[in-house]
Write a structure and sequence with these properties.
The chain has 361 residues and is an alpha+beta fold. The protein contains twelve helices and eleven strands. The strands form four sheets. It has a four-stranded antiparallel sheet with strand order 5-6-10-11. Strands 7-8-9 form a three-stranded mixed sheet. Strands 1-2 form a two-stranded antiparallel sheet. Helix 5 packs antiparallel against helix 7. The structure holds 6-diazenyl-5-OXO-L-norleucine.
Length: 361
């Protein structure tokens, strides 16, 4: 059967959407789906009909804005965003002022949360009517701090946010006999190469990127092409994993490690220094703002300090010739510290990505 786009379109014109979903075009679709192992059948297609729905609308500065209704979230989320923003005199602030960009992002953050929380196929999901109401927008506008970004997770309320990252993971253990394990394991990217070994129940990694994949090419952006880690038969790729056990008089006093690619080693360096040099408590050592310099790119990454902490000396560092870049988060270093005097074990789940400390009571 020879078909082309013109024929498909004329079929739709002749028969309306029914021609599309249960006629010869459906044959083509199902054949194509089958080739790819798809699950959709003729019956599914025949049961599908286009639906005509009322648009979502709102008003904004004397205009009416119409947008698509669910199952598109477009109209609802746009209306909610505009309703929030009309509470602020954005024009006075200028399109690219920090205030405008801040308010826009706060409004977007809130309406996209509602998108996640409530919106789906309206034939199957009850979508609350208040999302596009002006009263609701007013309450959301009131929740915006004009000076500070609201952490998205803090808005989630009842929604469970998975704290677990999809990437490299570290855990630290000390058992009742004082035996310690620091374990970092990596598949590189989320789900590695996304290939599960049938019957094996485990994923294959995609670690090849840990080799210097551009031999001879070392640049200021941080691509490294040095010989030591270029790909060769039988060679193992360079890793930055850094699970660490620190002992004193033969007893473990600190077990730590982290995910984070090339930042891993510096995350661990920060924690070891915090504990051993700056004599911080275990919680302080893990919480404290981290830093990272990896030679190239020639920049000093400083992790922002939590609200209320004294500011970092970024300006002074810039005067000293550092290219300073602030980052929101570095690593996830679940750590155990053991007090050498009392033997007390303190497990610290890093707050950055979420985790849990556990032990006998
Ligand atoms: O072994 C390494 O250095 C990398 N495969 C680690 C990647 C990683 O930590 C990504 N997760 N944050």
């Amino acid at each position: 059967m020879q078909h082309n786009l013109a024929r498909t379109l004329s079929l739709i014109a002749e028969r309306g959407s029914a021609g599309f979903y249960d006629g010869p075009v459906a044959e083509l679709i199902v054949a194509e789906m089958r080739k790819g192992g798809g699950l959709i059948t003729h019956r599914d297609l025949a049961a599908y009909t286009a639906r005509v729905r009322q648009p979502v609308s709102t008003t904004f500065r004397g205009h009416v804005v119409y947008g698509p209704p669910p199952p598109s979230s477009g109209g609802t989320v746009l209306a909610e965003t505009l309703n929030i923003l009309e509470r602020f005199p954005l024009r006075e602030q200028g399109r690219y002022s920090a205030t405008t960009l801040h308010l826009m992002s706060e409004a977007m953050r809130r309406s996209y949360l509602d998108r996640a929380r409530h919106i789906g196929d309206p034939d199957q999901v009850a979508i609350p009517g208040h999302l596009t109401s002006k009263e609701y927008a007013a309450s959301l506008a009131d929740s915006i701090d004009p000076e500070r970004a609201t952490p998205s997770v803090s808005l989630a309320g009842e929604l469970p946010i998975v704290g677990e990252s999809e990437s490299t993971t570290h855990f630290s253990i000390i058992d009742g006999h004082g035996m310690a394990v620091a374990n970092t394991y990596t598949l590189e990217d989320s789900f590695g190469s996304r290939v599960v070994v049938r019957g094996g129940g485990f994923l294959l990694n995609d670690e090849m990127g840990d080799f210097n994949w551009k031999p001879g090419h070392t640049d200021t952006q941080g691509t490294i092409g040095t010989e030591a880690n270029t790909i060769a038969p039988g060679k193992r790729m360079l890793s930055s994993q850094c699970p660490v056990i620190v002992t004193r008089h033969g007893e473990p006093v600190l077990v730590t490690g982290s995910p984070g690619g090339r930042t891993i080693i510096n995350t661990v360096a920060c924690i070891v220094l915090n504990a051993l040099e700056f004599e911080m408590s275990p919680v302080q050592a893990v919480d404290a703002s981290r830093m990272h310099h990896q030679w190239l790119p020639d920049e000093l990454r400083l992790e922002s300090r939590s609200a209320g902490s004294p500011p970092l000396p970024s300006e002074r560092l810039k005067e000293m010739g550092h290219r300073v870049k602030e980052v929101t988060r570095q690593g996830d270093a679940h750590t155990i510290a053991r007090d050498p005097q009392t033997g007390l074990l303190t497990g610290v789940a890093d707050r950055r990505r979420g985790g849990k400390a556990a032990g006998p009571d």
